[in-house]
């Protein structure tokens, strides 16, 4: 990871994509927000840490004021994250803003994209369906990581 992009700050980032996590890091650093923690579990077929594990970490993390969730094609982790976001937003008086993105919206079915977990098989949920679930949960879905920092700054009213 390009370490010079990181800066201490207030945004928690959890991502299935290493590359997109440091794109989000660059965007939040450029916006002057920095990062409280960055959790990258990759998109392997059998991860040790899940997207949901990383997301839940930020709900009660005092230094984290806003959360970024980056998913991708393959599996259903984003649907579990969307359900957790929905429950969190319903059960918390002042929920933290959450930005989400799902990579791979134009990926061809059956082709592995980068690593074993980034594979859109016929039985998988589409990236568009995952993005809709995240949007319906209350997350702000963005088209690419370059806008995450500025959008989070708006949501945090800074």
From TrEMBL:
Q: Which GO terms describe its molecular function?
A: nucleotide binding; succinate-CoA ligase (ADP-forming) activity; succinate-CoA ligase (GDP-forming) activity
Q: Which GO terms describe its cellular component?
A: mitochondrion; succinate-CoA ligase complex (ADP-forming)
Which keywords accompany this UniProt record?
A: Nucleotide-binding
Q: What are the BP-aspect GO terms?
A: tricarboxylic acid cycle
> Where in the numbering of this chain does the ATP-citrate synthase/succinyl-CoA ligase C-terminal domain appear?
14-140
Key word Translocase present: no
Xref: Pfam families: Ligase_CoA
Q: Which SUPFAM superfamilies match?
A: Succinyl-CoA synthetase domains
Stored PANTHER family: SUCCINYL-COA LIGASE SUBUNIT ALPHA, SYNTHETASE SUBUNIT ALPHA, PUTATIVE (AFU_ORTHOLOGUE AFUA_1G10830)-RELATED
Q: What is this protein called?
A: ATP-citrate synthase/succinyl-CoA ligase C-terminal domain-containing protein
Q: What is the lineage of its organism?
A: Eukaryota, Fungi, Dikarya, Ascomycota, Pezizomycotina
